[in-house]
Design goal:
With 123 residues, the chain is mostly beta strands. Helix content is 0%, strand content 47%. It has no helices and 11 strands. The chain has strands at residues 3-7, 10-13, 18-25, 33-39, 46-51, 58-60, 68-71, 79-83, 92-99, 112-113, 117-122. It is globular and about 40 Å long.
Amino acid sequence: QVQLVESGGGLVQAGGSLRLSCAASGRTFSSYAMGWFRQAPGKEREFVAAISWSRGYTHYTDSVKGRFTISRDNAKNPVYLQMNSLKPEDTAVYFCAAGRVGVRALDYEYAYWGQGTQVTVSS
């Protein structure tokens, strides 16, 4: 059974940092692009960042550019999201996803999803 499990969420004050991790089991995702998405209460799920399976191409939504960094280590956990200078509007459940897609792929194009981890940023 393929599983993606996110960790690292929590409560942080505005301006603080968190590092999310996404661990995979059941298969290797070294040939898959990995993405992070988030969903805030009452809002639709939105793209945050993605990284290609080779060469490390990355893509970010405008609101997190310069603050968030996506990276991957194919030998260990497949993907990380370093979040700095957090803002209250970053509060959401964050999901990781895997798929044989490009870094600009939409959420429905990803084949595998984790259950999400809550990130809450207080003002």
